[in-house]
Design a protein that fits this description.
The protein is 64% helix and 10% strand. The protein has 21 helices and 12 strands. The strands form 3 sheets. It has a 6-stranded mixed sheet with strand order 6-9-10-3-11-12. Helix 17 (518-532) links the parallel strand 9 and strand 10 (536-540). Helix 2 (12-44) packs antiparallel against helix 9 (269-310), helix 3 (49-97) runs antiparallel to helix 5 and helix 8 packs antiparallel against helix 9 (269-310). The longest helix has 53 residues, at 211-263. The protein is elongated and about 120 Å long. The two termini are 69 Å apart. The structure holds adenosine-5'-triphosphate (ATP) and magnesium ion. Magnesium ion (MG) binds next to helix 11.
């Protein structure tokens, strides 16, 4: 709640003006009934035409004033609410962008979307209401009571009865509806979740012909939400007519009681009419105040949900005093060429690294140590689920190691800013991700200043030129949302090209060659060696062929390092590796590989 309130601070000047305008509006509106009473009692009853004109003119001026104040107030209130909502959405988006993988898993994507749309909307609506009514209604209410008492004390019991009835009605719906609001947002979350999952998995659902089943699941969630919505709306729809009934009833009561007083000469007709208007104002103000009390808790639920996201402290943060690459080397007095001094080289070192996913009981990686040197290829092989992807995700700090250290150029990566670190890394994820736009715009994620030549060069290395040449628009060919209009292998090659455009010191390929045929795989590796051979290459692969020539191969088994060395060394020493190799290659091929 507090977190969200912070976003209204810049708009305090607006809010002050709103208060002034609304105060003006209240004062104007309160003045009107008195003049009306005068027109009737002094003008109409006594037949004084000039008096009617004079007072009428004053009333028109006051009415115009009311209108002006109301419009100015409304305008500023809407503006304040819309602008602060924009700031909140902006903050939410920024926050989520900085989330590490662990925090993203904590809130579901669907919930994050509901929070930054529906919840912000609810807060915005309430803000308009609050700015408009929270000041205006009490002003009007108190002012009307004072004026009504000035007009006639003996009628005050009528307003008393009305207020009593309103309190009872409002309190009833308050207790009935309020607890439902929180549930309502949760159900909305659930609906969005199912909707999102179903939409992205539509093809799979069709292939397994489970549409009926899925429809049922969706219907249940949908009906759940609808039931609750209906309940809330039903409660609300009872409330409004009831309140109207009370208002009309009081109107009749006032006329009835007033008529008696007029008959007894204790009240004038104009005064009774003025009193009627003040009474209505009192009731309306009271209504608004109670409505605000109903709206606030609902908005509070939303504000809390927004605050929960904004308050998360990302587990992966930049150090207070970030180090720079090269410092450690220079401090150690290591020789470095004049030109390269202070420049990152891209040496990656794991020192006794263990890692467990947040909330996981078992360690995914255990006691991993190795050095990946620039100019050399380090390959990682192992069965599915052995922790290959998890291992390389530690290098760009998608997660932090639970124990041990990951170093780049001798600097613990937790001592460098995430930006500096990731600037050195070209990461190609296991599942290629492309964004809607063009091929060029996707490649420019690697480097926004990349020229066409840069991009073509990267595409050539990634063996993607032939496929680009087929496209009518070349680099400007459209990429659909999520890259659905390119094949798996094309997506992989574009992802590789994107990393190449960046020209980093460290390349990380997570099984990026899996969707390529053998020939392309080979050509791509040769091109990589030639073009970026002096960078550090870390390659995860399932195929022995892909990694056989690597200077260093790490064999992972159940998160532990089962072997480390070249292909030949591992064939001698590592059973696990030998098994994988034999299952994939014939003795003959192995022999050939050795030569
Ligand atoms: N986000 C996550 N949260 C919790 N556990 C995870 C998460 N991602 C992976 N794991 C677990 O960690 C283990 C290693 O997964 P990882 O993705 O590193 O395997 P992998 O070697 O890359 O497998 P593959 O060859 O299939 O890609 C698996 O047992 C998996 O269930
Ligand atoms: Mg993997």
């Amino acid at each position: 709640m507090k977190t969200v309130l912070k976003y209204y601070k810049p708009y305090v000047p607006y809010i002050i003006f709103i208060v002034l305008f609304l105060f003006g509006q209240a004062m104007c509106e309160l003045a009107l009934p008195a003049y009306m009473s005068d027109i009737i009692d002094e003008g109409i009853v006594k037949g004084d035409m000039p008096y009617i004109w004079r007072t009428g003119a004053i009333m028109i001026v006051i009415s115009v004033g009311t209108l002006a104040f109301a419009m100015a107030g409304d305008f500023l209130a809407a503006r304040t609410a819309a602008k602060s909502s924009r700031d909140i959405r902006h903050a939410l988006f920024n926050k989520v962008t900085n989330f590490s993988a662990a925090e993203l898993e904590e809130f579901s994507t669907a919930s994050l979307i509901t929070r930054s749309t529906n919840d912000v909307q609810t807060v915005q609506q309430t803000t308009v209401m609050l700015l408009r009514m929270a000041i205006f209604a009490p002003c009007m209410g108190i002012g009307s009571v004072v004026r009504a008492l000035q007009t006639s004390v003996s009628l005050s019991w009528t307003v008393g009865i009305a207020l009593g009835a309103i309190v009872i009605i409002m309190a009833g719906s308050f207790f009935l509806v309020l607890p439902k609001f929180k549930v309502l947002q949760q159900k909305l979350d659930r609906m969005n979740l199912i909707m999102k999952e179903r939409l992205s998995g539509m093809l799979v659902i069709r292939a397994f012909t489970t549409e009926k089943h899925e429809q049922k699941r969706f219907d249940i969630a949908n009906w759940d939400l609808t039931k609750l919505n209906l309940f809330v709306n039903k409660a609300m729809s009872f409330m409004m007519p009831l309140l109207m009934f009370v208002m009309n009833g009081v109107g009749i009561l006032i006329v009835w009681a007033g008529a008696h007083l007029i008959e007894a000469d204790k009240l004038m007709v104009g005064d009774m009419l003025a009193y009627l208007q003040y009474a209505m104002h009192v009731i309306m103000s009271f209504l608004f105040v109670t409505m605000i009390f109903i709206m606030i808790p609902r908005a509070a639920v939303s504000a809390q949900r927004i605050g929960a996201v904004l308050d998360v402290e990302p587990t992966i943060t930049d150090p207070a005093e970030p180090a720079a690459f090269g410092e450690a080397e220079n401090a150690k007095g290591t020789q470095c060429e004049e030109k390269a001094c202070g420049m990152p080289r891209g040496l990656v070192e794991f020192k006794n690294v263990s890692f467990a996913y947040p909330d996981a009981e078992e360690k995914t990686l255990e006691d991993i140590s190795f050095i990946a040197e620039p100019g050399k290829t380090t390959a990682i092989i192992g069965g599915t689920g052995s922790g290959k992807s998890s291992l390389i995700k530690l290098i760009p700090r998608f997660y932090d190691a639970s124990e041990g250290q990951v170093l780049v150029d001798g600097v613990d990566i937790r001592d460098i800013t995430q930006h500096d670190l990731r600037q050195q890394i070209g990461y190609i994820p296991q599942k290629g991700v492309l964004f809607s736009g063009t091929i060029a715009s996707n490649l420019q994620y690697g480097d926004s200043d990349a020229t066409e030549t840069d991009m073509m060069e990267a595409l050539e290395t990634a063996q993607a030129t032939a496929f680009i040449a087929e496209k009518a628009n070349g680099l400007d060919e459209e990429i659909a949302q999520g890259g659905t209009n390119v094949s798996g292998g094309q997506k992989q090659r574009l992802s590789i090209a994107r990393a190449l455009v960046k020209k980093p010191k460290i390349y990380i390929f997570d099984d990026s060659f899996s969707a390529l045929d053998f020939k392309t795989d080979k050509a791509l590796r040769a091109a990589l060696k030639e073009k970026v051979g002096d960078s550090t290459l870390i390659i995860v692969a399932q195929r022995i062929n892909t990694i056989m020539d690597a200077e260093q191969i790490l064999v992972l088994e159940d998160g532990k390092l089962a072997g480390k060395g070249t292909h030949d060394e591992l064939m001698e020493t590592c059973e696990v590796y030998k098994e994988i190799a034999l299952s994939q290659l014939s003795e003959e091929e192995l022999e050939r590989g050795r030569k």
